[in-house]
Design a protein that fits this description.
5 strands; five-stranded parallel beta sheet
């Protein structure tokens, strides 16, 4: 099995990503990193409630979810979306400044696939996103990320 280069372009990868993140700096970093993935459509929400609404309106392939938002905990967002996560409708990646918390463990047990620690580092994040987009069609029962 060949492993992708961390900075490998993802020209043939597509899909949708919903970033539920209240921190403008983290939002800007994610937006910048996604420039390497021109076929990925980015939608952003700045609160848990807005993120849930956006996800239920149009379920993305991947959700990047801040665990500590002002209006609600990321764990609550995962709970609301847990049925869609379990059926493979989307993949959830947790974003947190905490290296370990009970909320992270609970969210992972409800189906979140990864946890990325803030501050986000560009090279590993780019490599992880490339891998997720590459493997998502096999894991996602309803949506293909390749075009």
């Amino acid at each position: 099995m060949d492993m992708p280069e961390p900075n490998a372009p993802a020209r043939s990868r597509g899909g949708s990503l919903l970033c539920i993140e209240g921190d403008p700096t983290s939002q800007a970093l994610i937006e910048t990193l996604l420039l390497a993935f021109p076929t990925v459509t980015l939608r952003q929400a700045v609160s848990g409630r807005d993120g849930i609404r956006a996800a239920l309106d149009e379920m993305p392939d991947v959700i990047l979810l801040d665990m500590n938002m002002p209006d609600m905990r990321g764990l609550e967002v995962v709970r609301v979306l847990s049925e869609r996560i379990a059926d493979g409708s989307c993949q959830v990646i947790l974003l947190t400044a905490d290296k370990f918390s009970l909320d992270i463990v609970k969210a992972m047990s409800l189906g979140a696939s990864e946890c990325w620690v803030k501050p986000l580092s560009p090279d590993p994040l780019r490599g992880s996103l490339h891998r997720i987009l590459r493997t998502a069609p096999a894991e996602n029962s309803g949506t293909a990320l390749s075009q």
